[in-house]
Design brief:
The protein is an alpha+beta fold. The protein has two domains: about 110 residues, Alpha-Beta Plaits, CATH 3.30.70; about 55 residues. About 25% of the residues lie in helices and about 45% in strands. The chain is built from three helices and twelve strands; from the N terminus they run βαββββαβββαββββ. Strand 2 and strand 3 form a beta hairpin. The termini are far apart. The relative contact order is 0.13.
């Protein structure tokens, strides 16, 4: 299991804050279950004023993104320091470690760029934030919002020529068709 430690201020509000952030009690622990799948388990250590968040290393990028966002929310809620040295996800091109918080943006961008590079010349579907299909065709190019690392523009070739789609958080999925 991977883990992150948050150093919490002295407070009896820890469980209340966790519950207000979507955690629920289960078998003596607090767990976060988006989409009814357990992703984060919390181990409370009130004597040392820290909580340990544990999660599986066998998740997909979307699940790691959810965990990253939730941990960032907790860091803000508790106004705490963290130690993510036990959450190594992979390595960057320069050999530096990428963790669930440390170097997260660089790691996410590296994986997204690699995934999208493999889709060039393949038939894809373009989806908006609500998973509505905007179009499909041969994937040509994309533009990313550098701050949020989301895809904001995508070009494909359709039966009627090249078509560009714009949005705040577009998804590009392979159709597995030729």
């Amino acid at each position: 299991m991977l883990s992150v430690e948050l150093h919490t201020p002295e407070s009896n509000e820890t469980e209340k804050i966790l519950k207000s952030n979507g955690f629920q009690e289960s078998n003596g622990h607090m767990v976060y279950k988006p989409n009814k799948q357990e992703q984060i388990t919390v181990i409370l250590n009130k004597t040392n004023q820290k909580i340990t968040l544990t999660f599986s290393p066998q998740l997909n990028l979307e699940q790691f993104t959810t965990i990253h966002q939730k941990i960032m929310e907790l860091i803000q809620c508790f106004d705490s320091k963290y130690d993510d040295s036990n959450s190594l996800l992979g390595y960057l091109k320069d050999g530096e470690g990428a963790y669930i918080i440390t170097n997260w943006s660089k790691w996410y961008k590296l994986l997204q760029d690699a995934r999208l590079k493999t889709l060039e010349g393949q038939k894809v579907r373009i989806l908006d934030q609500k998973e509505n299909e905007l179009g499909s065709g041969i994937f040509v190019d994309y533009k990313r919002d550098t701050e949020h690392l989301t895809i904001i523009e995508c070009s494909i070739i359709t039966l009627f020529g090249e078509k560009a789609y714009s949005g705040t958080n577009l998804k590009i999925e392979p159709t597995n068709e030729w």
